[in-house]
Amino acid sequence: MAIKGKVTFDIEMCKGCELCVDACPQKSVRLSPKLNAQGYHYAVQIQDNCTGCTNCALVCPDAVITVYRENRKKDRVPVARISGVTENITVTIDEPAAGKPAGAV
Ligand code: SF4
Ligand code: SF4
């Protein structure tokens, strides 16, 4: 059974660059037709088929994406949270696919 994931976006910090849209192998992400307070179309998850691969969080230049991956107890736990792109970048991955680098599909 495929791993289930979920992503959340800090929509007010999103600049609408679409890098996460292009990086998502599941086509789970697109830009909202709505604008945030900065006047940008912000990223949203549009399908419940996220695998928690973390690609979107890794490419986001504004570090506004948190990825959650369901564990065996069916709780969704954060696996990638990137903060402070101009300061420290911390990425924590649990259970990376065997033989693949983190974020690989
Ligand atoms: S974690 Fe992977 S599958 Fe989920 S939205 Fe991000 S890029 Fe797509
Ligand atoms: S990569 Fe980051 S800044 Fe760019 S659209 Fe996606 S969430 Fe927004």
Q: Which descriptors would you attach to this protein?
A:
binds iron/sulfur cluster, Alpha-Beta Plaits, elongated, 5 strands, mainly beta, 105 residues
Please render the helix and strand layout as text.
Layout: E1 5-9, H1 19-23, E2 29-35, E3 41-45, H2 55-59, E4 65-70, E5 76-81
Antiparallel strand pairs: 1-4, 2-3, 4-5
Provide an overview of this structure.
The chain has 105 residues and is mainly beta. The chain has a single domain, classed as Alpha-Beta Plaits, CATH 3.30.70.20. 10% of the residues lie in helices and 28% in strands. It contains 2 helices and 5 strands. The chain has helices at residues 19-23, 55-59, and strands at 5-9, 29-35, 41-45, 65-70, 76-81. It has a 3-stranded antiparallel beta sheet. The protein has a two-stranded antiparallel ribbon with strand order 2-3. A hairpin with a 5-residue loop joins strand 4 and strand 5.
> What order do the strands of the largest sheet run in, or round the barrel if closed?
1-4-5
What is the CATH fold-level name?
A: Alpha-Beta Plaits
Report the biggest beta sheet as strand number plus sense, adding barrel if it closes: 3 strands, antiparallel
The stretches of 5 or more residues where confidence is low (pLDDT under 50) are 83-91
Which range best describes the helical content: under 10%, 10-25%, 25-40%, 40-55%, 55-70% or over 70%?
Answer: under 10%
What does the overall shape look like? elongated
What CATH architecture label applies? 2-Layer Sandwich
